[in-house]
Records
---
Amino acid sequence: MTADSTQRTGPAFEGRRWMFPSALIHELGPDTERPGRPPRRTARDWVVDFICFLLAVGLGIVGADSVSGDPAIPAAVVAADQILGALACAALWLRRRLPVALAIVLTPVGMASLTASGAALLSLFTLAVHRPFRCTAWIGGVNIVTIPLYVWLHRDPGMPFAADVVLTALLTVSAIGWGLFVRAKRQLMLSLRDRARRAETEARLRAEQAQRLAREAIAREMHDVLAHRLTLLSVHAGALEFRPDAPRAQIVRAAGVIRESAHEALQDLREIIGVLRAGEPDDAGGRPQPTLAALDTLVDECRRAGMEVAFDSRVADPAAVPAVVGRTAYRIAQEALTNARKHAPGTEVTVSVTGARGEGLAVAVRNSPPEGDIPPVPGSGQGLIGLTERATLAGGRLEHGAEADGGFALRAWLPWN
């Protein structure tokens, strides 16, 4: 339901038990759309109004013939009856804008003029379509109660009084009942339309939320991937800056690591940006994402960068680990090694991976205490927050913290079914 439809709710409907949703009020009560101004009519509305006008004119002609054919009725009364009938038929063009006022006015007019009786019936039909049952019941009840008086005023000599009353009551009830049926059908259609509109809105919101979550996951992936590469760049660039007199072989090796890390970082960034532009959170179209089987390559890369890494893998078949679990374990180990390189350079790092199907996969990374004072690194702690969330989303858990000897340990468990 839109805000615009809410603003269209007429004040006459506030605080009533028969209050409808604003969309229903707008459709069933057109005069509430633009108070004080003529309502817009569609082509279908014009056709329906013209048919109602012709029907009222036809019924009025039948009534006028009946009145003019009775010699007991004076000519002045016949002329007044026909004039009232013509005015009542013309007033039907206001039935959409003023249904209540029209029904109230045509109640005594239809009683006094036989020519106007058809217009009075159509006004009751319009009232039942466009106004709630309580309003229709009051005005319709007055019309039904006055039927005996109407029949007495316009007595048909060829029909018994009781039969004439019953027939007129049936016509009145039929007009009101048909109007209530049309209103109920419109309410049902508008309710279904409003429900479909809400379903479309909810589906769009769910799609937007899924897209936002996918982009957040890509952002976390970007942090995990680029932090490792950029840390290598920072470490080796710092070594070249503070050790310009290092042996040529060491300088060449550091330059090679910088070049390779920069190339890998650009490649990873290009793939992530491509995924964001395509709006696809999947891994399709890029390089295969690393899993547990690629952990050996990560450790070798860290060793070539100068880290002391002891790697202990007790998983019989790393390729058998599910892709999501293996990728999560890889990112956890990668982030832990990056943190060890930033916060405890030169220390020995131990990486341990154990587990089996049905028991889960355990990843433990520990580094010994750093030597000397290490300056704080901007943005510290964000990677661990992301790892904790990643492990939780995979159905596992992650713990980390400093140990008694000053070292730092990270332990994670992931389900492997």
Note: Residues 3-203 form one domain.
---
Amino acid sequence: MTTFYLVRHGEPDWDINEKYKLKGHGRDLVPLTQLGVEQVYKASKDERLQNAQLILSSPYTRALQTAAILSKELYLEIQVEFDLREWQPDLTFQYDSLEQLKKLGTDFDLNNGNYPVGETRLWESKPMMKARMDGVINKYLNYDHVIIVGHGMAFRTQYEIDDIPHAYIIEYRK
């Protein structure tokens, strides 16, 4: 059995999105705030992470920065896995405002992450997210302890929790 430590990234600097009017995946390029950096340094001291053999990371900046801090503190290699990316609120990659993101997120939540029967939505469904997360996790079942640095919505496909704080650690066994 493998123990995965799902570590949500530290607090990101979302203000950059509005300042630069970033669109689509450009909105995922924001770094951590200073508080976010401090959150990750604190998480790196958690006893559960000390036995990890590898760090897997989402390709998004906030996750990579989090993984880099953990890598430095825990002396572990980082493997970037594209399928650990966060929920895609707009599969056309056209959304460009916090208001649009909130509307798409609200629709996702109202439908519990599932498309209504006979309908499709712009957003990535929970089953789609779970399938890609499971695909990554299943590749690393030959390890005993693995850190996965990623995102709240994606982690919620593996573990039932309403809200995951920044730099929070969830133990997940498979």
Note: The helical segments are 15-20, 34-44, 61-74, 98-110, 126-139, 152-155.
---
Amino acid sequence: MGLAEKRTAESIKTEKLPAFEAKLKDKAGYDIKVDINWDTFTAYDQYPLSRLDIVFDDLESFVKKICSDDMGKEALQDKMSTIQLTNSDNNDDVKMELKDKTLALTVQLVQGSFSSQTDSQIANYVEALL
């Protein structure tokens, strides 16, 4: 990881991430911690870090869909308190799992391709488990 990646990651940690978690709290009615495996995002270059905005938008939209009413908010709060993000350079690693109150998402934000779960895919997966 070079200086540019370190600066970008630090900016996300101190500015974008707190604002994103505040948006999630606003939509869900409770705190949702976002845990980013920084080593998997900064191991390449700045490009995967710049794509985190897309992932954040999909996650915010997913939470909004589930938490459209009190029933959804309560159900999500019972099952999820953390979102864990991991990046991979292998498209076959892209997956999602809700376990132990953690929604673990592995995305592929490196190279020329881009693969992550859409808001609807995440909402459909999680809603089925609530």
Note: The longest strand covers residues 82-87.
